[in-house]
Design brief:
Growth Hormone, Chain: A; single chain; mainly alpha; 509 residues
Length: 509
């Protein structure tokens, strides 16, 4: 293989270390669900509202919790809901700080610094029985959400900047792979006979901070992003040394020339803040594409599938629906691996179109299956198959690609602000879906997936018409794709230059 294009041990170490943060994010997403009834029981005890007869019925925590499920006090429900939702709130708030953290001391030191948050969050949840578990878990989940909002931006940013062009898609997809592996791990060890029981659930929650400890040990061994060193700090020698560490001994002149040209463009707009990015017509098209792709991920109905899957499996006669839900997690992981293998061959746009279109078809099939499974027993298998295929199509494209394509759509100057905005959009829409889905489900019933089918059809059309293919292209070439599209408008030949000059002289840029 040509020097500079092979995957080196240092590059593998850097990517592995970075995605430990993504693994932690996925684990934190999934860990709270399995032991829900056990945790509610402890909340009720701490608040003094758990019925004593429920405790006397059985020493087995999971059976006790199931028996008392219908008797859960409204105060317990409120604190439980807050324990789940506060995670997304923390992510929304911290997503605005991704650019600041990434630029302040660098990508590597930024990831290292925020690990303090993850460790503190893990300790709060692990030691929650020492005080009031409902307050300590909520505090820990809020801090962990704040950490995950930062890491969900920093990890794709770092990987996108250090990955060779030929492997940028595959390595970028590893962020999503680590997330779904983290979810699957949390589902497995959250089973009641492992850690999801009365005695061990604090340890289950505390383990969400464990990857941060390993990552903190490995990050000092990872080279800083050469694009950050050269374009933001102007340290060409350090950037060249970082390239050699990441790619081995090779002629780095082509990479340095590309970064030099990107730096010249970035110098026209030394810093692009979030407000500047929103107001700038020069970045409007790529920003619109980036936000739409993140919206398509969250408004696709994937979270609704996870909320609804256990009920569907139960109706289909599955005696242990929790294991079927773990099967969904396994499908998540397998098809993310498929995306890793295909993304640099088939392309980002092609996989996103295939994923969104397939999900749209599955949403329709699921609606038919849910409506008719009471009349025809075999329709329950249609519903189950539609769930597995829906998840598979999601992980082929709409799941992993939005996370790293934002780093491809923007040059060094606006990239941190764009990733921050996209992350905020993702976390906010996630929170909205989580808070409103139960009401929409009660309103529409089985037809809830018709709503998602309509949204998926719209996002498929948008992707076909507006999203460019970024496979194998440099950041400069990708920017040129958008400039060509804008130049179709009359008298726009000078507008971009004027806009960039305005941004340069603006005090808030």
């Amino acid at each position: 293989m040509e020097p500079g294009k092979e995957l080196t041990a240092t590059l593998a170490l850097a990517v592995f270390t970075a995605v430990l943060g993504s693994l932690q994010y996925g684990y934190s997403l999934g860990v709270i669900n399995a032991p829900q009834r056990v945790i509610e029981r402890h909340y009720g005890r701490s608040l003094g509202v758990w019925p004593q007869e429920a405790d006397r019925m059985s020493p087995n925590a999971s059976r006790t919790a199931d028996t008392a499920q219908e008797q859960v006090h409204p105060t317990v429900i409120m604190y439980w809901s807050l324990s789940v939702a506060i995670f997304s709130v923390g992510g929304v708030l911290s997503s605005f700080l991704v650019g600041f953290v990434g630029d302040f001391r660098g990508r590597v030191k930024g990831m290292l610094a925020i690990n303090v948050l993850a460790v503190v969050a893990g300790l709060l949840m692990g030691l929650c029985k020492m005080w009031k578990p409902h307050l300590m878990v909520i505090a820990g989940r809020a801090i962990m959400g704040f950490y995950c909002g930062l890491t969900s931006g920093l990890v794709p940013m770092y990987i996108g900047e250090i990955a060779p062009k030929a492997y940028r898609g595959a390595l970028g997809t590893l962020h999503q792979l680590a997330i779904v592996v983290g979810i699957l791990i949390s589902q497995v060890i959250g089973l009641d006979f492992i850690l999801g029981n009365d005695a061990m659930w604090p340890l289950l929650l505390a383990l969400s901070g464990a990857p941060a400890v390993l990552q903190s040990l490995l990050l000092p061994l990872c080279p800083e992003s050469p694009r950050y060193l050269y374009i933001l700090l102007g340290k060409e020698c350090e950037a060249q040394e970082s390239l050699y560490r990441l790619k081995g001994a090779y002629d780095a002149s082509a990479d340095l020339d590309e970064m030099r040209r990107e730096k010249e463009e970035a110098d026209k707009v030394p810093r692009v803040s979030i407000s500047s990015l929103i107001c700038s017509s020069a970045y409007r098209r790529p920003l619109f594409v980036a936000l739409a792709m993140h919206l398509s991920q969250q408004l696709s109905g994937i979270n609704a599938i996870f909320y609804y899957s256990t009920a569907i499996f139960s109706q289909a006669g599955v005696s242990q629906p929790v294991y079927a839900t773990i099967g969904v997690g396994a499908i998540n992981t397998v098809f993310t691996l498929v995306s890793v293998a295909l993304v640099d061959r088939a392309g980002r746009r092609t996989l996103t179109l295939a994923g969104l279109g397939g999900m749209c078809f599955c949403a329709v099939a699921m609606t038919i299956g849910l409506k008719l499974q009471s009349s025809y027993d075999w329709m329950s298998y249609v519903s189950m198959s539609a769930i597995f295929l829906f998840v598979a199509f999601f992980e082929i494209g709409p799941g992993p690609i939005p996370w790293f394509i934002v780093a491809e759509l923007f040059s060094q100057g606006p990239r941190p602000a764009a990733i921050a905005l996209a992350g905020c959009c993702n976390w906010t829409s996630n929170f909205i879906v989580g808070m409103t889905f139960s009401y929409i489900q009660n309103w529409l019933g089985a037809y809830v997936f018709v709503l998602f089918a309509g949204l998926l059809f719209g996002f498929t059309a948008f992707t076909y018409l507006r999203v460019p293919e970024t496979k194998g292209k440099s950041f400069e070439e990708i920017a040129e794709l958008f400039r060509k599209g804008v130049k179709k408008a009359p008298a726009n030949g000078k507008s971009d230059d004027v806009e960039l000059q305005r941004l340069k002289t603006a005090t808030h840029a």
